[in-house]
Amino acid sequence: MDTLYEQARDVPVVARVDLCVVGGSCTGVFAAVAAARLGLSVALVEQGGFFGGVAAAGLVNIWHSTLDTEFRRPVIAGLTAETIDRLQRRGAADDTGPSENVHYVLNTEELKIELDELVTGAGVRPFLHARFAAAVMADGIPVAAIIEDKSGRRAIRAAQFIDATGDGDLVARAGLPVEAWDDLQPPTTCAVIRGIADIAQRNPGFNLGRAIFDPDGGADVPAGFLWSRACVGHPEDVMVAGTRVPGADCGDADQLTRAEIEGRRQVRAICDLLRSRCEGGQDVSLVALPAMIGIRETRHATCLHRLTEREVLDGVRFPDAVANGSYRVDVHHSDKPGLTFRYLDGRELYVVPGRETVKGRWRPEQAEDPTFYQIPYRSLVPRGARNVLVAGRLMDADRGAYGAVRVMVNCNQTGQAAGTAAWLAMDSGADVADIDTDALRQTLARQGAMII
After folding, report:
1. Domain 13-183+375-446 CATH (choose: 3.50.50.60, 3.90.1300.10, 3.30.565.10, 3.40.50.150)
2. φ, ψ for residue 14, nearest 5 deg
3. Which pLDDT does position 406 carry in this prediction?
4. Residues near 402 by Cβ (< 8 Å), separated by ≥ 6?
């Protein structure tokens, strides 16, 4: 590869803080807010112009259940529940009520502002339109994060760091172990489309997935999956997730560029099909495209514990558990259409829109099934790390476990846990691998997190 020499230069230090969180998704926001509320000075670095990650920039307007699989026992609370409550008071979040697919539908535009309020209210110093560029190392640990923003190249000095980028940008550049698997779950470009409700009204029995993936003339979109939800307050606008870009590793700059362009092409193909083949389709309009493609998977951190699919599906309890979840294992395939669901009650489904669902069992029926699973703190501590934690979809989990824990309500909890753990490490003077996890769980419980 051809190279150029870049002359060394002095980089101004723009902030000195206790904790620097890189990545301003809801996970990163909750990490920053949790630590700041405990008294740490915190900087939060986000490459976009607003916080919220895939929920906001990706238009994914659903947070899955905060209850167990029987919809009886709360298993998720803390900053996730606080944010839902704040949005509901503004009429910006709807609860679908108990069902197999219980979820909260969010007004993602209101979410952006609510996250601003959380960040500024906690005294966190935000850096928007700021891209993390490098980690400055001393004695084997990061001591500063280099960012590039409108003011140029600047540095944030910190004692503790949390990588909430999802892609492992900080841990990889700090020399901590990461893995990139070959068979990554494909990313999806969501879109808000107007006119689908009118088509459904004019065409009894209309099914959006069957129309798009019709083998006799559907849209030019890889056969995969589809789900959609009406936008809060605007039922005529529907958020559609039906695209996929197989074989794209969005941790690579060139592949990310290709995926963004291909995802938007597929959205247009869906709109064109609805306009040309459906009665009433002439009124279909594309209302919004995401600021970023919805990335399911890139790098994985190598942490002190790799959460396994059996630990998830068997509901294993951990003494250092910092998060709970009930969302099923959900693996989007890159080498074939559709996705596989595995449930805590032993059921397994292979789902492809427009085809009959293949039903089976991954485990024989038993007298009692677990109703939730847990994520241990050890899965947030990179091997060899002294002052760095990961949060969100960067947590260490195998392929099956990752299919469950990667959803946003699970990632949110790991953010709050990592921020609290960073405070505890500062307060106790311990490395992140050596903090008292009983004290961590007690502190999270006092913050309102659901500690079981």
Report:
1. 3.50.50.60
2. -95, -20
3. 95
4. 297, 300, 393
d(CA 17, CA 320): 27
| 159 in Cβ contact with 428 (< 8 Å) | no
> Distance between CA 162 and CA 133 in Å, rounded?
15
User: Within 10 A of 125 (CB to CB), how many other CB atoms are there?
Assistant: 18
What burial class does residue 365 get, using C-beta atoms within 10 Å of its C-beta: 0-12 exposed, 13-18 middle, 19+ buried? exposed
At 312-354, the pLDDT tens digits run 999 999 999 999 999 999 999 888 888 999 999 999 999 987 7
Q: How far is CA 436 from CA 319, 320, 388, 407, 426, in A?
A: 11, 9, 16, 27, 12
Interhelix angle 78-88/408-428, rounded to 10 degrees, is: 130
In the numeric block, the tokens 């501590």 are attached to 381
Question: Which residues are CB-contacts of 252 (< 8 A; sequence separation ≥ 6)?
Answer: none
The model's pTM is 0.95
Tell me the Cα Rg of the chain.
22
Q: What is the pLDDT of residue 185?
A: 93
Q: Which residues contact 137 (CB under 8 A, 6 or more apart)?
A: 143, 174, 175
**Distance of alpha carbon 349 from alpha carbon 359, whole angstroms:** 5
DSSP, collapsed to helix, strand or coil, labels residue 6 as coil
Average pLDDT over residues 56-69: 93
Query: What would the pLDDT profile of 394-426 be if each residue is shown by its tens digit?
Result: 999 999 999 999 999 999 999 999 999 999 999
Q: Is it the case that residue 65 has pLDDT exceeding 90?
A: no
Mean pLDDT for all residues in the chain: 94
User: Both ends of the chain: CA-CA distance in Å?
Assistant: 53
Per-residue pLDDT band at 235 (split at 50, 70, 90): confident
What does the chain come to in residues?
452
Q: Name the β-bridge partners of 104.
A: 63, 95
Contacts of 188 (CB under 8 A, 6+ apart): 241, 242, 243, 244, 245, 263, 293, 294, 296
Query: Helices (DSSP H) in 75-195: which residue ranges?
Result: 78-88, 108-121, 169-173
Helix (H, G, I), strand (E, B) or coil at 134: strand
pLDDT in the model for residue 97: 63
> How much of the chain, in percent, has pLDDT values that exceed 70?
99
Residue 360 tokens, joined: 């089976």
Domain ranges in the chain? 13-183+375-446, 191-288
CB 332 within 8 A of CB 346: no
